[in-house]
Amino acid sequence: MNEKQNLKEEKHHKQQEFCYTRPAYRASRRLTAVKVYTAAAESQHLFIYNVPKINLRAELKNLCSKYGQILLINVVPDYKTELFTECYHVQFDRIQAAKIAKRLIDNKSFYGQVLHVCYAPEYENIAETQAKLDQRRRDVLKRIENPNRLPFDQRTLGDDVNFMTISKSQLQKKRKYEDLGNGNASSDNNTEEFLKDFYSIYDNKSKKNKT
């Protein structure tokens, strides 16, 4: 879709207010708005608001290229923005890269402005929408076939884009389950040796305390 044909600000482009009434057990480390995304709402097309109007296309491209290959990055002309700022339309080659970029760039400080990133599914063509839904269908089928599957595998770890979503604790859990959950005999032996050493140390301490 051509930018000149879509100059109206869509409702899903507007930034919602943060939620301050979440219970403590549901509160995250940073404030977020209450919003639900479906497969249809997500897209490889992003709108990035509040970019200072000082010709920062190259700098913004460098920022976005950290999360995946960029197919298109242009200023949206005649679009409603704040004073001295402009809106950019960025298209990634993969929807996974766009999802990570949205998560990490949104509310990020960029040359004195706080960026706002939103999906722009209205810029998709029929082929892109079909590919997006097919990919989601394959992901769901994989999870149904193996409900105990971790949210990442060996191929995902090799992908720089998806690797950025894996936290340190998740990576430690993955290594733990790879060693202990795949029937690895050497890892089982290592575990037994560790337990023997642990209990031997505990027994020695208990004997000393008794004496």
TrEMBL record:
Keywords: mRNA processing, mRNA splicing, RNA-binding, Spliceosome. InterPro entries: Nucleotide-bd_a/b_plait_sf (IPR012677), RBD_domain_sf (IPR035979), RBM48 (IPR039599), RBM48_RRM (IPR034264), RRM_dom (IPR000504). GO terms for molecular function: RNA binding. Residues 44-122 form the RRM domain. One of its GO terms (biological process) is mRNA processing. One of its GO terms (cellular component) is nucleoplasm. Belongs to the RBM48 family. As a component of the minor spliceosome, involved in the splicing of U12-type introns in pre-mRNAs. This is RNA-binding protein 48. It comes from Agrilus planipennis.
